[in-house]
Amino acid sequence: MKPDALRAGVSASDTVRTLGVAPAMANEHLLSAESKGLLCRDISPDGFRFYINLTSEIAEQAKRRDGVAR
Known about the structure:
The protein is 59% helix and 17% strand. The mean pLDDT is 85. It is of the alpha+beta class. It is built from four helices and two strands, in the order H-H-H-E-E-H. The chain is elongated and about 45 Å long. The protein has a two-stranded antiparallel sheet with strand order 1-2. It has one domain: Arc Repressor Mutant, subunit A, CATH 1.10.10.10.
């Protein structure tokens, strides 16, 4: 899978193909990453897709910026 795939989102079936694990395990990996704030989930009629959670990166950059500015 290309690194750009995370920008387009990944599904459990993408994870199955990439990691070579069972579908239930792939789903657990994705949900675990979501609970840690690494991924965020989009729910559509086609199912779940997970994306890189940019909110946490933006918040961290803002903290660094504000800390330096003061």
